[in-house]
Write a structure and sequence with these properties.
Helix content is 40%, strand content 11%. It is an alpha+beta fold and 55 residues long.
Length: 55
């Protein structure tokens, strides 16, 4: 049996940033956080994710 999961990272534009490429990066950071939390999740970007500098 093949099991499928989906992980989604979201960021708001212009809520989180006014630069489109930074919004894309923030969504990517949120995506990695969703995967870190066990996959099959939707995670909204939070500033705490970025300040850690681990992504």
């Amino acid at each position: 049996m093949i099991r499928r999961t989906i992980s989604i990272g979201c960021s708001g534009f212009p809520v989180d940033t006014t630069h489109i490429w930074e919004a894309i990066k923030f969504a990517d950071v949120a995506l990695y956080k969703a995967k870190e939390l066990g996959r099959n999740k939707v995670v909204r970007f939070q500033r705490e994710f970025w300040t850690s500098g681990e992504y």
